[in-house]
Hints:
Blueprint: E1 11-14, H1 19-30, E2 35-39, H2 42-50, E3 56-60, H3 66-79, E4 86-89, E5 95-96, H4 104-132, E6 135-140, H5 153-172, E7 178-185, E8 197-198, H6 209-219, H7 224-236, E9 241-244, H8 246-257, H9 262-280
Parallel strand pairs: 1-2, 1-4, 2-3, 4-6, 5-8, 6-7, 7-9
Helix pairs in contact: 1-7, 3-4, 4-5
Bound molecules: nicotinamide-adenine-dinucleotide.
Amino acid sequence: MPGREVAGRPVMITGAASGIGRALARRLSGLGSPVAIADVDASGLKETEGSLSGRVLTRVLDVRDAADVLRFADEVREWLPAPLGAVFNNAGVAVTSSVLDAVPEDDQWLWDINFHGVVNGTRAFLPILVGQGSGFVVNTSSVFGLVGMPFQSAYCAAKFAVRGFTDSLRQELRGTGVRAVTVHPGGITTNIARNARIRRDPEGLGRTKEQMAAQFEAITMTSPDRAAAIIHKGLSRGRSRILVGPDAYLFDALARITPTHYYEVISRVQSRLRTQQKADR
Length: 281
Ligand SMILES: NC(=O)c1ccc[n+]([C@@H]2O[C@H](COP(=O)([O-])OP(=O)(O)OC[C@H]3O[C@@H](n4cnc5c(N)ncnc54)[C@H](O)[C@@H]3O)[C@@H](O)[C@H]2O)c1
């Protein structure tokens, strides 16, 4: 079985127009990987492409469209200069709302991207990996796939689903040479909160979406470049489950130690961080 090192081997990354996906593309391309990058955001994708020096296949793609994801997998198969090292099903979006005020079409939009998009990518690319008997399927969950958070019911449901799907796949892949990996990022400073669907401040504080995004960004602990480095290192070390950032380790520990009361601790930490933010301003 080929080694665990992905750098230098071709990779496919969805959600590569921004944030963690873009950082993964830059890191792996910089280390010699040919990269197939996909995103629904054509201009962001062009920008990512322009920042890469190695071989690139760029494809505007909506991960919700299973038939188009299959077509893209065929294109990647044709383009591949060597066995595929990894498939990063990374594209994702956010919705903030209480369950009481949930707008069904917003929740559906999120599930279609964050869960079905991951399933579409896995199903389309798995035959390539299994056929060659090597490589990683790397599916992005979240720390919100480890704990439930208020006003994040759709997001948590989708990220728990990614975790369950990928854990099941991991067992099926025993003996194939292909590994399924779940990534659980903590807060990463990306565009996710700015691109979120938020109809109103669910805490009733009257904050605008911009203000809520700024608050989220202020308490994130990890840059996209650092996240990409941690994910890469986790793959090289053969991890099946990669926690990204110090906050991810805290969430993971709390979910185990106090599975029904973790939110009391998390909310205290969050309000301390917010108070610190105000004092620093
Ligand atoms: N930023 C965080 O704090 C954080 C924490 C945990 C998990 N995550 C997860 O990490 C992944 C990457 O998010 P990010 O933080 O880099 O956010 P981001 O907004 O910077 O990047 C997400 C990318 O996904 C793309 N995308 C959205 N819908 C798509 C679709 N239908 N088809 C194809 N591409 C689509 C966007 O255009 C964007 O380029 C997501 O799955 C997200 O849920 C992020």
